[in-house]
Design a protein that fits this description.
- There is one protein chain.
- The protein is α+β, with helices and mostly antiparallel strands.
- It folds into two domains: 255 residues, FAD/NAD(P)-binding domain (3-Layer(bba) Sandwich), CATH 3.50.50; 139 residues, Translation factors (Elongation Factor Tu (Ef-tu), domain 3, Beta Barrel).
- A hairpin with a 2-residue loop joins strand 13 and strand 14.
- Helix 3 packs across helix 13 and helix 9 packs antiparallel against helix 12.
- The model has no long low-confidence stretch (mean pLDDT 96).
- The structure holds flavin-adenine dinucleotide (FAD).
């Protein structure tokens, strides 16, 4: 079998690259390991897919090479993808922080991509895993095909060997996050085969776990969420945090997890609108006879206040506010505005929305996604060392990088 372009992986980036290449009248084959295309799209955004963000800034992306993503993101923007979504009459809505979601289902996005594949005659084979890539450059000088991919296709007859030659090979096999949704290290192995280093990999956009007294603390509060400001080093995010039976999650926690290194503390401002120390002192001056827990229950969940009381002011829990020393009130206020917690780990790749790090982008052309010293070989999407913040940025990177490769492959 011969194709102009073979795309490995039918995720967001692979499908976009295939559609773009096929719209240039290239023969395109997409090879997908699992039984479904776009598994992560289907599960994303709570089933509604946060497919892009209209307030995209380059600093919404992390990479060892911060400039790399700029070209692709400027060539295929959020507005380009929105135009495609509108063309297919998919209803979408803007939620807070300029995040765009499908109104009905993430299936709308997968169906749209499949429809575009059909219109442009992209062939997709599922249940097919590629295990090796061979460079044909030295084998057959007359052939235009540069790469041979080999693997197998599972079908009703069992397993059939696959051997496909192509002029351009686009690697869109994603990264390690969520193996059950297609997470794979295949792209990394291929990068190593072509002598491209990997920048350190770790789980990103991922909940935190605790092994100290905070573990039962979080367990008891499981399901409670609140607006908070979460800080790690110079980086901070203001969004909801969520207590879970394993630790802490919620958008602000997922965002800060991209910046957290094992052993570091994070600081959580549980009442970011207020200076609690000042407020407690002011209440004391007014001769307020309330208990601290009753005073705080007006602005925080009662069960959270009770757990915090156990942690921070158990010995004076039954003292009225006007009967507590200024020093102690300042200490409590400070602890609530700057609650320091030390995660023992993250939940890891099992639940991480993304993988930080990846193929070193210094080896990739930022306009085309082509590998610098290997004509016709492209890497796109999450396999590269480009990771977005939470909010539709990771899909936008997949669309943009996929489009740029598809335009030249
Ligand atoms: C639960 C969850 C929710 C998310 N929600 C959002 C969201 O709302 N908004 C957002 O912007 N981002 C979200 N993300 C992140 C987003 O899904 C990814 O950044 C994006 O899917 C990456 O696209 P990709 O095409 O590079 O990789 P993937 O989507 O992972 O696709 C890679 C494909 O390659 C296939 N594959 C792997 N190895 C092989 C092989 N050897 N041969 C053949 N095929 C292979 C895999 O089966 C997979 O289908 C979410 C992630 C998760 C896990």
């Amino acid at each position: 079998m011969k194709y102009d372009v073979v795309v490995l992986g039918a995720g967001a980036a692979g499908l976009m690259a295939a559609i773009t290449a096929a719209s240039r009248k290239k023969s395109v084959l997409v090879i997908e390991r699992s039984n479904k295309v776009g598994k992560k799209i289907l599960m994303s955004g709570g089933g509604r897919c946060n497919f892009t963000n209209t307030d995209l800034e380059f600093d919404n992306f992390l990479s060892n090479n911060e400039h790399f993503c700029k070209s692709a993101l400027s060539r295929y923007t959020a507005w380009d993808f929105i135009e495609l979504v509108k063309k297919h009459e998919i209803e979408f809505e803007e939620r807070k922080h300029n995040q765009l979601f499908c109104v009905h289902s993430a299936k709308d996005i997968v169906n749209m991509l499949l429809k575009e594949c059909e219109i442009n005659k992209v062939k997709i084979i599922k249940n097919s895993e590629i295990s090796s890539v061979i460079n044909l450059d030295n084998e057959d000088k007359l052939s235009h095909e540069k790469y041979r991919v080999e693997g197998y296709e599972k079908n009703i007859k069992g397993e059939e060997a696959l051997k496909i030659d192509c002029k351009s090979l686009i690697v869109a096999t994603g990264a390690l996050s969520v193996p059950t949704l297609g997470g794979s290290d295949f792209g990394y192995k291929l990068a190593e085969q072509y002598h491209m280093p990997l920048n350190a990999l770790s789980a990103g956009l991922v909940p935190f776990m605790f092994s100290d007294s905070l573990k039962p603390f979080c367990e008891k509060l499981s399901g409670i969420s609140l607006d908070a400001e979460v800080r790690c080093g110079d980086q901070s995010f203001r969004e909801n945090i969520l207590f879970t039976h394993r630790g802490l999650s919620g958008p602000a926690i997922l965002q800060i997890s991209n910046y957290w290194k094992p052993g570091q503390e994070i600081t959580i401002n549980l009442l970011p609108e207020r200076n609690i120390a000042e407020d407690l002192l002011a209440e004391k001056r007014l001769n307020n006879k309330s208990l601290i827990r009753n005073y705080l229950s007006s602005c925080m969940s009662k069960s959270l206040v009770l757990q915090l009381q156990d942690l921070l002011w158990r010995e004076i829990a039954e003292n009225s506010l006007n009967d507590i020393s200024d020093k102690k009130l300042i200490k409590i206020g400070f602890a609530l505005n700057q609650w320091k917690v030390k995660p023992s780990s993250t939940e890891g790749y099992r639940t991480a929305e993304v993988t930080l790090g990846g193929v070193d982008t210094n080896y990739i052309n930022s306009q085309t996604m082509e590998v610098n010293n290997h004509q016709g070989l492209y890497f796109i999407g999450e396999v590269l060392d480009v990771t977005g913040h939470l909010g539709g940025f990771n899909f936008q990177w997949a669309w943009s990088s996929g489009y740029c490769a598809g335009l030249v492959a």
